[in-house]
Design a protein that fits this description.
Helix content: over 70%
Low-confidence stretches: none
Shape: globular
Number of helices: 5
Number of strands: 0
Order of helices and strands: HHHHH
Mean pLDDT: 84
């Protein structure tokens, strides 16, 4: 007899779809960056880190199916491999990254509110 599938909470659903979307964004960004490496010179360390990140993101579509930890670590590592080398070479890039924390904080707040939304409650009627 098969065990019943675990019931996902609201936050689990939001995190699941958000992490898969982030993986798709990362694979498109890293893939584009590697494609442009054929046209413009990419520093060796950036190229190596990008290839490793691309392989991990591709692997996460298989290994991350049931492992939240694997998906989140892959997203964090792949993001860091793209941001850290650029900031080390050009520290002035840190300012726009700090400014980008504002919309990220708004996005996290929206995701948390979405995860707490009660789907069984009907919307209020009226004008």
């Amino acid at each position: 007899m098969n065990a019943p599938a675990p019931v996902r909470g609201k936050w689990d659903k939001v995190e699941f779809y958000t992490s898969w979307f982030l993986l798709l964004v990362l694979i498109s960004f890293i893939g584009t960056r590697l494609a442009f490496a054929t046209v413009w010179q990419l520093p060796t360390i950036d190229f190596v880190l990008s290839v490793i990140a691309m392989l991990l993101v591709l692997a996460s579509f298989w290994f991350g199916r049931h492992s939240r930890r694997w998906r989140l670590w892959t997203i964090g590592f792949a993001t860091a491999t793209q941001i850290v080398p650029m900031v080390i070479r050009e520290p002035v890039l840190l300012f726009p990254l700090i400014g980008a924390l504002i919309p990220i904080a708004i996005l996290v707040g929206c995701l948390m509110a979405l995860s707490k939304k009660d789907t069984s409650a009907s919307p209020p009627t009226g004008s």
